[in-house]
Amino acid sequence: xxxxxxxxxxxxxxxxxxxxxxxxxxxxxxxxxxxxxxxxxxxxxxxxxxxxxxxxxxxxxxxxxxxxxxxxxxxxxxxxxxxxxxxxxxxxxxxxxxxxxxxxxxxxxxxxxxxxxxxxxxxxxxxxxxxxxxxxxxxxxxxxxxxxxxxxxxxxxxxxxxxxxxxxxxxxxxxxxxxxxxxxxxxxxxxxxxxxxxxxxxxxxxxxxxxxxxxxxxxxxxxxxxxxxxxxxxxxxxxxxxxxxxxxxxxxxxxxxxxxxxxxxxxxxxxxxxxxxxxxxxxxxxxxxxxxxxxxxxxxxxxx
Length: 304
Fold this sequence. Notes:
By secondary structure, the protein is an alpha/beta fold. It folds into two domains: 2-122 and 192-303, Malonyl-Coenzyme A Acyl Carrier Protein, domain 2 (3-Layer(aba) Sandwich); 126-183, 2-Layer Sandwich (Alpha-Beta Plaits), CATH 3.30.70. 47% of the residues lie in helices and 16% in strands. It has helices spanning 24-34, 41-46, 50-54, 56-75, 89-97, 102-122, 136-145, 165-173, 196-206, 230-239, 247-257, 270-278, 293-303, and strands spanning 2-6, 82-85, 126-133, 149-155, 158-164, 179-183, 217-219, 226-227, 261-264, 284-286. The strands form two sheets. The protein has a six-stranded mixed beta sheet with strand order 8-7-2-1-9-10, sandwiched between helices. A hairpin with a 2-residue loop joins strand 4 and strand 5 (158-164). Helix 4 (56-75) runs parallel beside helix 5 (89-97) and helix 4 (56-75) runs antiparallel to helix 6 (102-122).
């Protein structure tokens, strides 16, 4: 049984789409997906610098378009047995599961991105940082002492903290014992109360979508539960904007389901890295460039 995973914000890098445009099917799909949003995905994925693609309004549609276009190159129209997405990656996962269309995912994520950017701009300066290692209780105590929220519980000894930029900088300057802290390239404290103003905006847009039910298995990043009902998928896509991501529980559900292999679609690397620590022994392929397509197809054939 294979799981197809879609990465979240922070995975983007300048020029990441350039090599993918050499594949006619991916290039065509990217342009079609770009039409469903309010940015030029191809332009930003090939020419924009790191600061430009750090902008939430750009990063989120760019990531979902990249995930969908590269996933379709491996899967075609087939539905993966299991799919999940980290943070904004859940919009790509929802489309791959059959709950919404690729174009609906792009349209909704465009609304999400703009609403979250507006929420971040209206609040005090906020940020996020990955805390790697350390004692779990000591890490959480350090976050509480600084007024920070554990916005992503990623498993494998990684927690992402979110909150005021000043508090994030204090955490970076004085990390918990035996832990490293790395500030992330994001534009706000996502998955916290700071994002609550974006929830109503996204809910209004989602109300215009008529979802289908999930044909296979979609794992929700809110709590690691399997979601089948399309309306529940939409509701969870809306609410996750201001709620923590429990990727640790998603990985446990994959193990419980008997997942035997993982494909992380582009820009891959982060989620397969987490899986190496939390899902040891499960073979994985991360799509970082078109050179990885053959390995992904071979893995799919072996484990489908």
